[in-house]
């Protein structure tokens, strides 16, 4: 019998809990336009949310799961002056192609699928740029969970991408993440009975349950020079936050323009928590990054 691997990250979908920014008193008007674009031989469907004078522009990249376009998050960002393209993941909703993931018994974190999803994100950026005229700020990628592997791959493929923002994305290899996830077993009280040292020891020593070529985001991140921000929740039981932050600090020490922000009491669903602060922090960072001049 053939074994299939899947990763069971919480599906970071388009649900959002009425986020508001206490620092913002103005809501920007925007228009929407449904679009289709081609990627790796199939047609993807999405929607562009376009303010009249965007301060920045970005593509939303999915987490794991059968994710459709993230209209609520896109609406929030567009109302804050950011142009957004959000699309149905391949094989989901109105997009063509074949979906890979646990629901259909296939491996959604092998290198082939992650690179395919990265191609989709790259083509989405090209599509958004083609629909924007005049000043639109820098274009970037913002994603969730599994996007921690997809976004660095996409940025490495497309030099038009000028920044990246990732919520709860692992900065470890796919196999390391699986060791951590199998260890926590989805236990919401995991961190009440385990230490960071115990989790790291398990990740170093636990034999892999599956054999496949791992993807390590540091391979792409070590070659990129665009600004990046990772937002984590300290009680995450899906991604190893402590080790991910350590890896980012190592890259930053080598001159990479990467930053991270930790919200200690939040879990994996940081972007979609009831608190508005993680998304507010992200918006402020996006606007700052988009307004900065290109580094020499």
TrEMBL record:
<keyword id="KW-0378">Hydrolase</keyword>
<dbReference type="InterPro" id="IPR022742">
    <property type="entry name" value="Hydrolase_4"/>
</dbReference>
<feature type="domain" description="Serine aminopeptidase S33">
    <location>
        <begin position="53"/>
        <end position="177"/>
    </location>
</feature>
<dbReference type="Pfam" id="PF12146">
    <property type="entry name" value="Hydrolase_4"/>
</dbReference>
<protein>
    <submittedName>
        <fullName>Alpha/beta fold hydrolase</fullName>
    </submittedName>
</protein>
<dbReference type="InterPro" id="IPR053145">
    <property type="entry name" value="AB_hydrolase_Est10"/>
</dbReference>
<dbReference type="InterPro" id="IPR029058">
    <property type="entry name" value="AB_hydrolase_fold"/>
</dbReference>
<dbReference type="GO" id="GO:0052689">
    <property type="term" value="F:carboxylic ester hydrolase activity"/>
</dbReference>
């Amino acid at each position: 019998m053939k074994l299939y691997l899947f990763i069971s990250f919480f599906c970071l979908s388009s649900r959002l809990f009425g986020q508001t920014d206490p620092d913002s008193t103005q809501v920007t008007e925007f228009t929407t336009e449904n679009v289709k674009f081609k990627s790796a031989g199939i047609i993807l469907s999405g929607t562009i949310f376009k303010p009249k004078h965007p301060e920045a522009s970005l593509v939303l990249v999915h987490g794991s799961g059968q994710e459709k376009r993230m209209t609520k998050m896109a609406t929030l960002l567009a109302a804050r002056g950011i142009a957004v393209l959000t699309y149905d993941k391949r094989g989901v909703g109105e997009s063509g192609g074949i979906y890979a993931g646990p629901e259909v018994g296939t491996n959604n974190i092998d290198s082939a699928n992650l690179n395919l999803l990265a191609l989709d994100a790259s083509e989405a950026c090209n599509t958004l740029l083609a629909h924007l005229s005049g000043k639109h700020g820098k274009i970037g990628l913002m994603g969730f969970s599994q996007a921690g592997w997809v976004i660095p791959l996409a940025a490495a493929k497309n030099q038009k991408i000028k920044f990246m923002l990732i919520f709860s994305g692992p900065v470890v290899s796919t196999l390391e993440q699986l060791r951590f996830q199998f260890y926590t077993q989805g236990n919401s009280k995991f961190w009440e009975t385990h230490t960071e040292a115990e989790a790291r020891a398990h990740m170093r020593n636990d034999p892999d349950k599956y054999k496949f070529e791992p993807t390590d985001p540091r391979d792409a991140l070590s070659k990129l020079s665009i600004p990046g921000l990772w937002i984590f929740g300290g009680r995450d039981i899906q991604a190893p936050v402590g080790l991910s932050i350590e890896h980012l600090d190592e890259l930053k020490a080598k001159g990479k323009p990467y930053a991270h922000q930790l919200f200690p009491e939040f879990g994996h669903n940081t972007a979609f928590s009831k608190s508005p602060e993680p998304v507010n922090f992200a918006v402020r960072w996006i606007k700052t990054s988009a307004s900065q001049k290109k580094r020499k």
